Each structure stands twice: as structure tokens, then as C-alpha cells.
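anyone seen this seq b4? input:
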Amino acid sequence: MSEKLLKNSLIQMPNALRIHRDRIAKQAMDTANGLGHILTIAFESHDKTAIKAAWVLDIIARQNHVLFLPHLPTFCKQIHQIKNDSAKRPFAKIAAILSLEARKGTTIVFTPKQEEQLVAIHFDWLTSNTAIAVKVYSMETLYQLGFSNSWVHPALKTILIQELSSESPAYRAHGKKLLNNLNTAL
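predicted toks r here
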């Protein structure tokens, strides 16, 4: 299936129901370079189609993160372009999935430059006025990447301590969990 046909499927997606996202994710996974096409749409479109593409990428990452391997350079280099909170959330979640897999040492391997790009954007998202889910996934990504970047854990810990009392219950719950893990790790 071509990029044009996948984009058309995204445009015609009536809503965010899981059945629709699953259908397009399956189409993309069954297509040569389907993930690449969806990634291109997510980065190049500046409308609801990009958000829908991000939702589909999230499903693909959860079902088969290995498909992201050839696209890691693009993903890491262009993730900073995502401005819409509805698209940031799935991208932050994908980064959390990929960074966990990288830490496990299974299939995902980031270059130092890619790690630097991910660390930069996730610190930006964590400290900016963005949706709580984006912040929670960003702190998870930073926690995972901190095992290969010695300065990340202390910086993450400082931010969490400063922000914990003023954030939402979801942020506080995940932040406390990570602080406990960081206190053990440091």
C-alpha cells in the first residue's frame, strides 16, 4: 500500500475508536515500508491526519516495536517537530517503549546522537506546559535513557522533586515511583 493510500485511510478514519486505529496499523504493518509512510505523514502533515498517524504509530510500537529499527534516525531527529499534545502523547509513549527496549539490550540500539535528541525533547516536554500523559511518558523515557547517560538521572530527580507538589495526582504517582527507583539507582 502506498503512502497516498495510507494517508487516504487516515483521512477517512471517522474517529479514534480502537477498531479503526487497529485496521490502519495492520495495513501499515502488512505493507512494505508502511511504518515509514505513516511516520512521514505524522511528521509532514499539520492537521488531524498527523494526529491520526501518531495514534497508529503508537499501536504499531506496542505490537511490533522492531519495525521502528530502520526508522530510528528519522524518529529521533524529527520528534521535536511534534507540537500538538494529541500527537505528543503517542510519540512520548513510543519513545518510552523504544527506550525500555534499548535498555533491555534486545533489538533497539540508539546512537549517542539519537539518545541526545530524545533526552533533549523529553526534558523539554517534561518541563513545559503540556499534557500530563506526555510528561509521564517523558519521565519514563528519561529514566530509561539515564542508564546510559550518567547526568540524566540526577537532572530528572531534581525536576521531579521540584515539580511533585504542584502537579496532578497522575504525575505525582509516577514521579514518586521513579524517585524511589532513582534513589535506589543513584
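The mean pLDDT is 92. The radius of gyration is 17 Å. kinda curious what u guys think
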